[in-house]
Amino acid sequence: MVGQTTDGDKDVANIIDKRELRAIFGRFATGVTVITANYSGELFGVTVNSFTSLSLDPPLALFCLHSRSSFRAALGVGSSFTVNILSEEQRDIAALFASGVDRFLKVNSVPGRGGSPVLTNSLAYATCEVEQEVPGGDHVIVIGRVIDIGLLRREGKPLAFFAGAMHKINTYQ
Fold first, then answer.
1. pTM of the model
2. Is-contact 34 168, C-beta < 8 A?
3. Separation CA 63–CA 133 (nearest Å)
4. pLDDT class for 161, splitting at 50, 70, 90?
5. Is 92 exposed, middle or buried (0-12, 13-18, 19+ CB in 10 A)?
6. Coil vs helix vs strand at 117
7. Could you give the count of Cα atoms lying within 13 Å of 26 in the half-sphere of its Cβ?
């Protein structure tokens, strides 16, 4: 119920319907990224919409990843990852990296600093070195120090995620 809380209720999580919570959180529009990594010569990639900048000084960024994601094998303090910021034309790439089959055979990429793939048609990228992983419920919050950046395309609009689907953004100028 809107605006009603109980100060003494310590078990609020049991009264929150997970499907409804997902629908509510889905009303917040986010950008869509593909996070990539190279771990011992094996390429990893996953579609993520929970990316954000954290700090400019020092330069930090973070993303959230499900605790059971196979991408976790590529992470650890000192390892690197690249955040590829997708354009509205890259909906198929977002879907490809969300599904997980032969991802890197179907995209153009170049090795970035630390070996993490940079998707060549993305809007921009930031390569980070993992500084910390923080447990967060059924996810882990991965905090990385930015060690390389690149603006790959000056033109183009970002791909957005809203209400469980990917969308183009209409901008007013």
1. 0.83
2. no
3. 10
4. low
5. exposed
6. strand
7. 12
- CB-based burial, 36-58: b 16+ in 10 Å, e otherwise: bbbbeeebbbbbbbbbeeeeeee
Q: How many other CB atoms are found less than 10 A from the CB of residue 16? A: 9
At residue 54 the predicted structure's pLDDT band, cuts being 50, 70 and 90, is: very high
Separation between Cα atoms, residue 149 and residue 161, nearest integer Å: 23
Buried b (16+ CB within 10 A) or exposed e, 59-82: ebbbbbbeeebebbebbeeebbbb
β partners of residue 162: 165
The backbone torsions φ and ψ at residue 171, rounded to the nearest 5 degrees and listed phi first, read: -115, 150
